[in-house]
Write the structure tokens for this entry.
Amino acid sequence: MKIQVSEFIVQYLQRLGIKCIFGMPGAHILPVYDQLYDSPIEAVLAKHEQGAAFMACGYARASGEISACITTAGPGATNLITGIANAYADQQPILILTGETSTHIFGKGGLQESSGEGGSIDQGALFQAITRYHKVIERTDYLPQVLNQASQILLSDKPGPVLLSLPFNIQTEWLDANLLNTIKTHPPQHNVQHHPDLNRLHSLLNQAKKPVIVAGYGCVKAEAQAQVAELSERLNIPVTTSLKGKGIVCENSPLSLGSLGVTSSGYAHQYLIQHADLILFLGASFNERTSYLWKADLLANKIIIQVDRNSEQLEKVFQADLAIGSDIKPLLTSLLEKIPPEHHVQEVQKKQLSRTIQALKKSSDPKEAIFQQGFDLIAYFYQKLAQHFPEKCVIFDDNIIYAQNFFHVSSKNNYYPNSGISSLGHAIPAAIGAQFFQQRPTFAILGDGGFQMCCMEIMTAVNYKQPLNIVMFNNATMGLIRKNQHQQYQDRFINCDFINPDYQRLAQSFGIEYKKVSNEADLNHLFSDFDLKNTITLIDIDIDKNAFPNYASRR
């Protein structure tokens, strides 16, 4: 049976398991949209293509599955770039479909042409550095091979964005539907192997007197949170996490040191320098933020063990005494089998470690505190958030420094900091995308500067009845820029301050709830009287523009 390429593409999406696709239509991609009309895939209309890309990012992070976005040619595609760059940096499996002018007018100056011919925009060159694979499909005879290449990337251990550009005339051509059966749309099966270094790993942990686990996002991707927590408890090993790993172990646990990094409270940093004799890195890349700009004394005079599924991460920024390329979950499962369930750490050791950790938290010099004054209301907000939503809550956070220090993430919640390329305007569309995977109490947290980059996507949530709590820290400035200009540029403030709109009226125009928060009583009223599970609410929290976190980014 012959079917059109547009239908072939939609059936390919279905076989990949894609349940919704985010984007904006245009004339050059309408044949595919017409086939989506009769498919079970939900086409979600965003307000801007960047928002569509961030929605796909949010869906991928919440689901762990392939997500998709779709746009027309020219500006439709170019508007995706920031969101796709974010997905590339985060290794997210996102399939991007874009339209293109018909092949027979390439180079003739077609409307919104992006073929790179005749002086037109070269879309392939624009996306080359931020996709794992990209292709303008100019013929149907190699389409199955192109889709197999796309599948290989999307379903791999190291996924990333894949972009397929479909000229208008190609979408309407015909080919054999049976060719779909030649395309791989299921992930390869991995056989769990017991790594030969397992015995050495076990031995080094047993020999260490004060080991520490540094758990990163690789543990989240491997769904190894339970194994990390069990290893920590059985061997009495404290755990600190990267920012993206926040919540791998419950941060109220006595063995939690919170998150490690230049914008964190510093407990983990002090413990590593003053006490640790072995560090076990589990799926943590040890980037600039986590490593305190690769501070040498964090790792000095310690045994270093690194476990990562991605071989490119092994010993990328430090040398390890033992580097293991392995899936984290099966490796830890095998390691735990070597530790008898009846293995008990002596109570005196547990009490001694607990006293050490508590002493670190109490002995911090107030002058070294990252938040000294002006942040009590933010701290109280996160306290209330943790109390009211101890589980089944999703947080997308652009203002990560506050949550990193004030929010004790439960292992039963999902905290997604704005990683990738750390773009402003990410939290709201990403949170909306996650809601299309599974509706749960969800918070998008961002500043008023970032809010104005993406607030139009609130109407996407309204249109599709997706509940969402938008927490906006309101100080009428670009906070990070103002902080740097205060610390390093002698208060020569330029292009950081601005005038805000009337957010109450803005919320009314969207048809959503609004709550102004100026004190703790307002927060008590918010959490006691507002429906934060089933409605869309803009929560406008006042903060002082001249209260600066006490850390320096050296920029």
